[in-house]
Write a structure and sequence with these properties.
The protein has an eight-stranded mixed beta sheet with strand order 1-2-4-3-5-6-8-7, sandwiched between helices. It is elongated and about 55 Å long. The chain contains seven helices and eight strands; from the N terminus they run E-H-E-E-E-H-H-E-H-E-E-E-H-H-H. The N and C termini lie far apart (40 Å). By secondary structure, it is of the alpha/beta class. The protein has two domains: 108 residues, Zincin-like, CATH 3.30.2010; 111 residues, Zincin-like, CATH 3.30.2010.10. The protein binds zinc ion. Zinc ion binds next to helix 5.
Length: 225
């Protein structure tokens, strides 16, 4: 199934790089790409930073293909501003703002993955269990802890996974990723008790295929690493 058009032509590289330059960002180390995806709704946009591969990927809903470059450039710049915490208003960003207020949609998403292993796991789990409906600001590896296997930070919308999972089987990494995404989905639970693993949380967690087997393999992995 071909649902996207991937644009990595020289011409686009230059366009994207000069958009970044206007913001005062020097991102020469990075490879840029822009994808128009049929899977993304309407005028949604997303920026994905692959730190390891020094790649910045823009994903735009398919509708963007028909939009003039100046406005697309505004979206590129708005996403870069978010990712690199810049506060700059360019001509293109102003054009984007008025464009989006006309189409009644303004949805800018940023995702930042430290590693491809984490991105792939996130996308597998998100696709399989959440119908790809979950977004995330950042996923990274933390300390090689055996007690805190992962955590989800509500304020920064960030998942941190213990680095012992760098060499774990996919299944175990996915299981931890799933657990953390359930935290995002379920929120704080009862605000009085701040109960994290509520009965409905646990019930949903057990939907992971071969839940009991995975739990055993996870314990075995932890004790051998
Ligand atoms: Zn938990």
């Amino acid at each position: 199934m071909r649902d996207m058009i991937n644009i990595e032509k020289e011409e686009f590289q230059e366009k994207l790089k000069s958009a970044a330059k206007e913001l005062g960002l020097s991102l020469n180390k990075y490879q840029f790409s822009l994808i128009y995806s049929r899977r993304m709704k309407g005028y949604n946009t997303k920026i994905v930073l692959h730190r390891f591969h020094k790649r910045i990927e823009f994903r735009f809903g398919y509708k963007w293909k028909e939009v003039g470059w100046e406005i697309q450039k505004g979206a590129v710049q708005a996403l870069l501003c978010r990712l690199f915490k810049k506060n700059k208003k360019t001509m293109s960003i102003s054009l984007l703002d008025s464009f989006l207020s006309n189409v009644h949609s303004s949805y800018l998403v940023q995702e930042d993955f430290e590693d491809d292993i984490l991105r792939e796991s996130f996308e597998r789990v998100n696709g399989k269990f959440f119908n790809s409906s979950q977004g995330i600001s950042r996923v990274r590896f933390g300390k090689p802890s055996k007690t805190t296997l992962g955590r989800y930070d509500f304020d920064s919308d960030e998942i941190v996974i213990s680095s012992i999972f760098k060499k774990a089987p996919c299944e175990l990494l996915d299981y931890v990723m799933y657990h953390e995404l359930l935290h995002k989905k379920h929120g704080y639970g009862s605000s009085l008790k701040r109960q994290y693993h509520t009965p409905s949380f646990k019930q949903e967690e057990q939907k992971f295929p071969d839940y009991k087997g995975v739990e055993k393999r996870l314990q075995a992995f932890i004790s051998h690493n």
